[in-house]
Amino acid sequence: MMKKSDFYYDLPKELIAQHPTEKRDQSRLLVVDRNTGELQHRHFFDILDELRPGDCLILNNTKVLPARIFGVKEETGAHVEFLLLKTVEPDVWEVIAGPGKRAKPGAKFSFENGLLNAEVLDVLEGGNRLVRFTYDGNFYEVLDRIGQMPLPPYITEKLEDSSRYQTVYSEKLGSAAAPTAGLHFTKELLAKLREKGVEIGEVTLHVGLGTFRPVKTEDITAHTMHSEHYWLPKETADLINRTKANGGRVIAVGTTSCRTLESVATFHGKIEEAEGDTDIFIYPGYEFKCIDALITNFHLPESTLIMLVSAFCGYENTMHFYDVAVKEKYRFFSFGDACFIR
C-alpha cells in the first residue's frame, strides 16, 4: 500500500514562488530522464532543444475566471466574498461564500453598487451555496470588470498583472485555477517550436479548486478525486494518432492535459474526439496509455499531482529529483519553475 506520507518532502517556505519570473520563458527547467534518472539544469527556453520535429505538444486552452467577487448583504450592508466554482444552469452558480452564516437561502447580495446582484437558492452538501445572479448585459464582461483572480492559498502577495495567471493561449473561460505548466510559454517560443516541426494541439480541461484539495486519507487509494470537465476536439485526436503512427512523441503540457488524454484513452480505449467529466486518479501503478513526455511544475507535498508525476517518472526518481530541486533552490508551485520529464 502506498501511503500519503510516502509523498512528503520538506520544502522551505522561501522556495514557494510569490511572483512569476520577469519573462515567462526565463524560469528554470529541470530535465529528467525517467529511464536513467539523469538530471540536467536548464532554462525553459531550452525546451526548444529538447523537442524534436514530429513531436506534438498538447496544451490546455482553458481560461481562468476572475472568480473572486466582493459585495454586501442588501439587508445589513455586511461584507461578503463569493468564489465562483461552476455554472449549474444559466445564471445559477455553485459558489463558496464567506462568511457562510451571512449566506442563508433567500439572502440577497449586491456587488459593485448593483452591477451584479445575487440571491442564495440553497446550501449544498459540504457547505457550498447555489446562487442565482442578475445583471445587465453579458455576465462574463461584468465579471471581468469586478472580479479578481482566485490565486492559490499559498500565494499571499498581490499579483500586479492578472494576465500572468493566464497562459498566452488561454481561450475557453471556465477554470478556477490556471494550468500552470503552460505559464512558461511565450507566443515567440511557440512560433519557434512550430518552425522546428513540432506540431501543437489543444484540449480543454476546466481546472477546479479540487486541484488544491489535500489528500486526507493515509491510504491514498481511499482518496475521493474531484471531477473536472474536459473536451478533446477531433483535430487534436487526429494529430495525436498521426504523431504516434509516425513515431513522434506526445508531450502533455501540465497534469491537466495529461489527465485529459489519459482519461479519453482509458474511457474510450483509444484517442478520439470526446467530451465529459473525469475524476481519474493517477498514482504509481497506473499504466500510461497516451503520453510519452510531460512538462509540469513542482507540486505540493502529499498532493495528487506529485502522485501523478511519480506514476509517470517512477517513485524513487521523483522523490530524488524533488530533493535535488530543493537543494538547488528551484522555485515551487504555480509561479515556480518547471520540469520536463522525458
First and last CA, distance: 27 Å
Helical residue percent band:
10-25%
Rg, nearest Å? 21 Å
Silhouette: globular
Proper CATH architecture of the largest domain: 3-Layer(aba) Sandwich
Unreliable stretches (pLDDT < 50, length at least 5) are none
Portion in strands: 25-35%
Description:
By secondary structure, the chain is α/β, with parallel strands linked by helices. It contains 7 helices and 17 strands. It has helices at residues 47-50, 139-146, 187-196, 234-245, 254-268, 304-313, 315-327, and strands at 28-32, 39-43, 56-60, 62-64, 68-73, 79-89, 92-98, 108-111, 116-123, 129-135, 172-175, 199-205, 228-232, 250-253, 274-278, 293-297, 338-341. Strands 2-1-17-16-14-3-12-13-15 form a 9-stranded mixed beta sheet. A 6-stranded antiparallel barrel has the order 5-6-7-10-9-8. The chain has a two-stranded parallel ribbon with strand order 4-11. A hairpin with a 5-residue loop joins strand 5 (68-73) and strand 6. Helix 6 packs across helix 7 (315-327). It starts with 27 loop residues before the first strand and ends with a strand.
Key words describing this protein structure:
342 residues; alpha/beta; QueA-like; Thrombin, subunit H; 2 domains; nine-stranded mixed β-sheet; six-stranded antiparallel β-barrel; 28% strand
Q: Layout of helices and strands, plus pairs?
A:
Elements: E1 28-32, E2 39-43, H1 47-50, E3 56-60, E4 62-64, E5 68-73, E6 79-89, E7 92-98, E8 108-111, E9 116-123, E10 129-135, H2 139-146, E11 172-175, H3 187-196, E12 199-205, E13 228-232, H4 234-245, E14 250-253, H5 254-268, E15 274-278, E16 293-297, H6 304-313, H7 315-327, E17 338-341
Parallel strand pairs: 1-17, 3-12, 3-14, 4-11, 14-16
Antiparallel strand pairs: 1-2, 5-6, 5-8, 6-7, 7-10, 8-9, 9-10, 12-13, 13-15, 16-17
